Structures are given as structure tokens and as C-alpha cells.
């Protein structure tokens, strides 16, 4: 009986430890004020690094192509985290995306590499696509970039890839 209880407690402790380790690697749990060095040690290398005005840097952690989140961690010139933002958020797109202002490099610095780049006959340029979730629904963000590299429009839509897999 004691060995069973010990085995159960050991398994419970192991599961708790694994759960905490999973939290340690979650970019959205980084707190403003943390050091960039601690953040990098905790999360590992980012999927993208971009300079910010004023000497800071953006550490970007993307879960694409299989996932649905891109987290931007902005660090100031002194090496302290100033903001942590999960940017693939439908409520933010209208505020964040700067149509006719952003260039291709701005899109990369904000959203990282897209899930897909395609072309459509109704637009002269490329359509960059990211997957995200809105209230547990799989969605897509489409950003239209003209041949000069300028963002001309964007829209969202349902992620139909899951339907294709099921058929």
C-alpha cells in the first residue's frame, strides 16, 4: 500500500514538474521587466529577431506553420522586456495593419514568416497568409502585398484546410 501511494505521489510530482516546464516555454507568460537574457534562456532561440527604433529588439516566437500563434516580445535598448503580444488576434488586425504604409519587411517584423504565400488573379502581387484561432475557430489572415512590396489590403476568412483534410 505504501509503495502504491509513493508511486502515485511520484507520478503526480513528475506530472506537475512537466506541467511547469511547459509553462516555462510559453512566450505569453514572459513578464515585462524580465531581462532579454533570461527570456532567451527560458524560451530558447526565437523564430525571428528584428531591430526596433530606439535600439531595442523584437524577439518573435511563432508556432506556424502547424500552430496558430505568433508572440512578439519587445525588448528595450537596456535589455528589458517592455511588451509581450500575441499578434494573431482578430481584434487587433484593424489597429495593427497599416494599409498603404507597411512594407513587406514591416509585415515580417510584426507577424513573421507566413503560413503560405500565393497569388490570385484579382490582385497584382502576392497574398501572404497566417493561420490563427478566434474563439476556437480556425481562421486565416490574408495580407496583399503589391509588386513594390507595399501592403494594399487585408482580410480574414475561414481556414478551409481542415475541411480538405476531412474530405
What percentage of the residues does DSSP assign to strands (E)? 25-35%
Radius of gyration: 20 Å
The low-confidence runs, each spanning 5 or more residues with pLDDT under 50, are 1-23
**Class by SSE composition:** alpha+beta
State the helicity in percent bands.
25-40%
Mean pLDDT: 87
Order of helices and strands: HHEEEEHHEEEEH
CATH topology of the largest domain: Beta-lactamase Inhibitory Protein, Chain:B, domain 1
Shape: globular
Task: Trace the largest sheet across and list its strands.
Answer: 1-2-3-4
**Number of H- or I-type helical stretches:** 5
- Tell me what the CATH architecture of the largest domain is: 2-Layer Sandwich
* Count of domains: 2
Number of strands: 8
The major beta sheet can be summarized as: 4 strands, antiparallel
State the name of the first-level CATH class of the largest domain: Alpha Beta
Organism: Variovorax paradoxus
Protein name: Lipoprotein transmembrane
Keywords: Signal
What does this 3D model show about the protein?
The chain is α+β, with helices and mostly antiparallel strands and 167 residues long. It has two domains: 59 residues, Beta-lactamase Inhibitory Protein, Chain:B, domain 1, CATH 3.30.1450.10; 76 residues, Beta-lactamase Inhibitory Protein, Chain:B, domain 1. It is 31% helix and 31% strand. It contains five helices and eight strands. A four-stranded antiparallel sheet has the order 1-2-3-4, with helices on one face. The radius of gyration is 20 Å and the shape is globular.
